From TrEMBL:
It comes from Paenirhodobacter enshiensis. InterPro entries: Flag_FlgI. Signal peptide: none annotated. This is Flagellar P-ring protein. Assembles around the rod to form the L-ring and probably protects the motor/basal body from shearing forces during rotation. The gene is flgI. It holds the Pfam family FlgI.
Length: 365
């Protein structure tokens, strides 16, 4: 009986040749990247699920500062509201973002607030690592979790102490970067590989009919855009990013022991190897028995232990030979022929790798 295990296959089409991928999906353009922003703010309007002022004194401090900026004098007052929470606000400023555009922000409580559901973030400046303010965030918080509690029980679903504000930050300062002033641009491969970098180089030079691309290392291809005879750097990159190449990937087998998932790349191969697998189960059952004295007799009830132990050597797979394979389909067919469960298949793959017969990088999560 053939047992189909949970195997996710990454297969490239075998009939029409390997799949080609756009260069924009394989590389990052040097200088075209986002910038991280962070700010410290206050969420108000919570339904009694805010910070406790005794455990989070910084919340009282920022609340006092906000009220004083609004003209409310709270000097010497002891504030004990339960509907405010101190939060950290994070966002990513996308490349070429212009003043007035909006970006999404993430809000996370840093005190002992129970939930940010229904709260509103008060105007919060967002700073970059250089200390400058590049955006300002404000708006209602959308929390992906909920928390309900009573005197004897509580239920928490999701993470109610964090949330998002879609388009909640407005860009106030632009990043000084002039793309069209660049005459040389580097392409950084997300998966460094000599073969892939060489194919990108040849594809770009063939597209432009000039030697403008040069492979520097397995992770970098340098572009001399002055040889491209294009109107601008942006025009050249828009043409380059849509060129298709065939990427080369390392053979990998990725195993997730928690879910029993096995992922194989298309280049995985197995040498001729013999495999045998069996299951050994140990069972110990406790069934204590109460022994009572006869009626009207002197004595005490005694609990006598009763233990039943057994060893079950369940029949597994007999010695099976996996032949040399030349394709992923043959690998899968040979492994399926063993007729074992996903958990056993993970152990078999691990041992085949230890024996040197699995020609792929073996990654266990």
């Amino acid at each position: 009986m053939r047992i189909i295990f949970f195997l996710l296959l990454i297969l490239f089409p075998s009939l029409g040749g390997a799949a080609t991928i756009r260069i924009k999906d394989l590389v990052e353009f040097d200088g075209v990247r986002g910038n991280d922003l962070v700010g410290y703010g206050l969420v108000v309007g919570l339904n009694g699920t805010g910070d406790g002022m005794r455990n989070a004194p910084f919340t009282e401090e920022i609340m006092s500062n906000v009220l004083e900026r609004l003209g409310v004098n709270v000097t010497g007052e002891q504030l004990r509201p339960k509907n405010v929470a101190a939060v950290l606000v994070t966002a990513t400023l996308p490349p070429f973002a212009r003043a007035g555009s909006k970006v999404d922000v993430t809000v996370s409580a840093i005190g002992d607030a129970k939930s940010l559901l229904g709260g509103t973030l008060i105007m919060t400046p967002l700073n970059a690592p250089d200390g400058e303010i590049y955006a300002v965030a404000q708006g209602p918080v959308l929390s992906g979790g909920v928390s309900v509690s009573g005197q004897a029980a509580s239920v928490v679903q999701g993470v109610p102490t964090s949330g998002t504000i879609p388009l909640g930050a407005r860009v106030e300062r632009e990043i000084a970067f002039q793309l069209n002033s660049l005459k040389t641009v580097r392409l950084a491969l997300r998966e460094p590989d000599f073969t892939t970098a060489g194919r990108i180089e040849r594809a770009i030079n063939s597209e432009f009919g000039a030697h403008i691309a040069s492979m520097q290392d397995p992770g970098t291809v340098s572009l001399d855009l002055s040889q491209g005879r294009m109107n601008s750097t942006a025009h050249a990159l828009s043409r380059i990013e849509n060129i298709r190449v065939e990427p080369e990937q390392r053979a990998r087998v990725i195993v997730d022991q928690r879910s029993g998932t096995i992922v194989m790349g298309s280049d995985v191969r197995i040498s001729r190897v013999a495999v045998s697998q069996g299951n050994l189960t140990l069972r110990v059952q406790e069934a204590p028995e109460a022994i009572q004295p006869n009626p009207f007799a002197r004595g005490e009830t005694v609990i006598v232990p009763r233990t039943a132990a057994s060893i079950d050597n369940a029949p597994g797979t007999k010695m099976a030979i996996l032949p040399d394979t030349s394709s992923l389909a043959e690998v899968v067919g040979g492994l399926n022929a063993l007729g074992v469960s996903p958990r056993d298949m993970i152990d078999i793959l691990k041992n085949i790798h230890s024996a040197g017969a699995l020609h792929a990088e073996f990654i266990v999560n």
